[in-house]
C-alpha cells in the first residue's frame, strides 16, 4: 500500500464571522441551466460548489433578504426620535345665509409648513432599542442559515461520491462474477465442475445486474439534488483521498463543545435576543403611563377675500409651542398590557433555557457520533484488509479444489460490501465533523478549506 499524506485535523476555529451581511453582499452570480447527466464535466471541489450555492440557494437567499429587511425596519424605528416636517395647503369657498340678512361669501387660500419634534417619549425610545435588538437577531438567523447551507452542500457533495462508489463497487462485483460464471461454465463443459456452480454464478450475476440499475438511478438522483442545490449542471465532485489516518476532533472533550455551543450557537443567541426584546416590551408597556412632550411649530400664509372678510389680503401665521399629553386612565388597558408583557417575558426566559438544553443535547450526540464514526472507519479499514486476504485464500482454495464457487462468490460479496461501507463511513465522518461544529455554533465557511484538503486536487 502506498504511503499517503495525513490530512489536517478538524481543529476548532475560534474566530466568528465579522459580518454575515457583508459576506453575503459579495456573493457570486450563478446561472441556472438544465439538469442533465454529466458526461464531460470538470471536477469541482467543495469550496467552489459552496460559493455557487451561496449565491443561488433559495433558502439562504430568503434568509438574506429577511436580514436586509430588518435593517430598514430598524431605520424606521430610529425615525421616531427625529423631527418630522410637512406641508399642508387648502382652498375653501364658504357661503353663509342668515335670515333677514344678505348672504356672505368668503374665498380663502392657505398653506403652512409645520414640524414636530419629540422631546420626551419613553415608548418611542424603547421601540428603537427593540428594533436594534431585532436586527441583531436577524443577523443571527442569517448566520444559522449559512451554517445550514454549508452542511447541506457538504451532505449533497458526499452523497454523490458515495453513490459513485456504490456504482463502481457493483460494477466491479459484476465483472468479477462474470469471470466466475465463465470459469464455472468452462469447468462444467470439461467435467471438473457441476451445473450448480454455473447456476449459482448466474444467479449472482443477474442480481448484480439489478443492483447496477438501482445504483445508476441512485447516482442520477444524487447528482440532480447536488445540481439543483448549487444551480449548475454536470457537477463532478472531486473524489476523497484514500486516508490512512482519519482527522482528529479538537477539543477532545464533549463538555468543551457544549460550553462553546452555550456561548455561540445561533439558536441560543436568538433566544437571548428574544428575551431582551420581551424585557424591553415590559418597559414600553409601562411607558404608556408616562406623559409625552412634543415641540411644534408652523409657518404659512393665508389669503382671504369676499363679503364675509373684513379685509381682503394675505396674512402670515406663525406659531411655536409645546404639547403635553398625559394619559390618566385607560380603563385598565395599561395595567393588563404590563401583566401580559411580564408573562411573555417569562415565556421567553424559558425558551432560552429550552434552547440551551436542546443545543447541549444535540452537541453531545454529534460529538459521540463523530467519535463512533472515527472508530467505525478504523475498524472497516482493518476489515477491508482482512476480507481481501480472505478472498485471495478462497480463490486459492477454489483453484486446488478445496473450495466451491459459492465460497468465492460469498467472499467477493463480503469484500465489496466492506469497501462500500468503508467509503460511506469516511464520508459520514467528514460530514459529522461539520455537523458537530454546526451543533456547537462554530461552523464557518473557512471550515470547508479543511475538508477540501481531504479531496483529490
What would you note in describing this structure?
The chain has ten helices and six strands. It is an alpha+beta fold. 32% of the residues are buried. A hairpin with a 6-residue loop joins strand 5 (292-306) and strand 6. Helix 2 packs across helix 4 and helix 4 (122-190) packs antiparallel against helix 7. The model is unreliable at 1-41 (pLDDT under 50). Strands 2-3-5-6 form a four-stranded antiparallel beta sheet, with no helix packed on it. Strands 1-4 form a two-stranded parallel ribbon.
Distance between the termini: 20 Å
| Biggest β-sheet: strands ordered side by side in the sheet | 2-3-5-6
- Indicate the low-confidence ranges by residue numbers: 1-41
The coarse silhouette is elongated
Compact overview of the structure:
The chain is an alpha+beta fold. 61% of the residues lie in helices and 14% in strands. Strand 5 and strand 6 form a beta hairpin.
Amino acid at each position: 500500500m502506498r504511503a499517503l499524506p495525513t490530512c489536517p485535523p478538524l481543529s476548532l476555529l475560534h474566530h466568528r464571522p465579522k459580518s454575515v451581511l457583508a459576506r453575503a453582499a459579495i456573493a457570486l452570480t450563478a446561472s441556472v441551466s438544465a439538469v442533465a447527466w454529466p458526461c464531460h464535466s470538470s471536477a469541482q471541489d467543495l469550496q467552489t460548489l459552496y460559493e455557487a450555492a451561496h449565491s443561488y440557494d433559495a433558502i439562504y437567499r430568503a434568509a438574506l433578504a429577511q436580514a436586509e429587511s430588518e435593517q430598514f425596519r430598524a431605520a424606521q424605528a430610529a425615525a421616531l426620535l427625529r423631527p418630522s416636517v410637512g406641508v399642508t395647503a387648502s382652498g375653501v369657498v364658504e357661503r353663509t345665509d342668515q335670515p333677514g340678512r344678505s348672504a356672505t361669501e368668503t374665498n380663502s387660500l392657505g398653506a403652512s409648513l409645520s414640524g414636530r419634534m419629540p422631546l420626551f417619549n419613553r415608548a418611542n425610545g424603547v421601540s428603537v432599542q427593540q428594533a436594534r435588538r431585532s436586527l441583531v437577531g436577524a443577523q443571527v438567523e442569517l448566520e444559522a442559515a449559512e451554517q445550514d447551507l454549508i452542511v447541506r452542500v457538504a451532505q449533497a457533495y458526499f452523497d454523490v461520491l458515495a453513490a459513485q462508489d456504490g456504482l463502481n463497487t457493483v460494477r466491479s462485483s459484476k465483472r468479477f462474477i462474470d469471470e466466475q460464471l465463465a470459469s464455472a461454465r468452462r469447468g462444467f463443459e470439461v467435467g471438473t465442475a457441476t451445473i450448480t456452480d454455473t447456476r449459482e454464478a448466474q444467479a449472482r450475476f443477474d442480481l448484480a445486474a439489478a443492483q447496477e440499475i438501482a445504483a445508476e438511478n441512485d447516482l442520477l438522483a444524487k447528482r440532480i439534488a447536488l445540481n439543483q442545490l448549487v444551480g449548475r449542471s454536470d457537477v463532478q465532485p472531486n473524489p476523497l483521498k484514500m486516508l490512512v489516518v482519519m482527522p482528529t476532533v479538537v477539543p477532545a472533550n464533549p463538555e468543551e463543545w457544549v460550553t462553546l455551543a452555550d456561548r455561540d450557537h445561533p439558536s441560543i443567541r436568538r433566544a437571548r435576543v428574544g428575551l431582551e426584546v420581551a424585557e424591553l416590551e415590559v418597559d414600553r408597556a409601562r411607558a404608556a403611563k408616562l406623559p409625552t412632550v412634543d415641540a411644534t411649530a408652523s409657518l404659512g400664509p393665508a389669503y382671504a377675500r369676499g363679503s364675509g372678510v373684513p379685509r381682503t389680503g394675505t396674512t402670515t401665521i406663525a406659531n411655536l409651542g409645546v404639547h403635553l399629553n398625559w394619559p390618566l386612565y385607560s380603563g385598565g388597558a395599561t395595567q393588563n398590557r404590563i401583566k401580559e408583557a411580564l408573562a411573555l417575558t417569562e415565556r421567553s426566559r424559558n425558551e432560552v433555557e429550552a434552547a440551551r438544553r436542546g443545543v447541549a443535547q444535540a452537541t453531545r450526540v454529534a460529538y459521540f457520533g463523530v467519535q463512533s464514526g472515527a472508530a467505525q472507519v478504523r475498524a472497516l479499514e482493518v476489515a477491508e484488509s482482512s476480507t481481501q486476504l480472505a478472498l485471495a485464500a478462497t480463490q486459492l482454495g477454489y483453484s486446488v479444489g478445496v473450495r466451491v464457487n459459492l465460497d468465492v462468490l460469498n467472499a467477493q460479496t463480503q469484500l465489496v460490501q466492506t469497501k462500500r461501507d468503508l467509503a460511506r463511513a469516511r464520508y459520514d465522518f467528514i460530514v459529522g465533523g461539520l455537523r458537530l461544529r454546526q451543533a456547537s455554533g462554530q461552523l464557518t465557511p473557512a471550515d470547508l478549506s479543511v475538508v477540501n484538503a481531504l479531496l483529490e486536487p
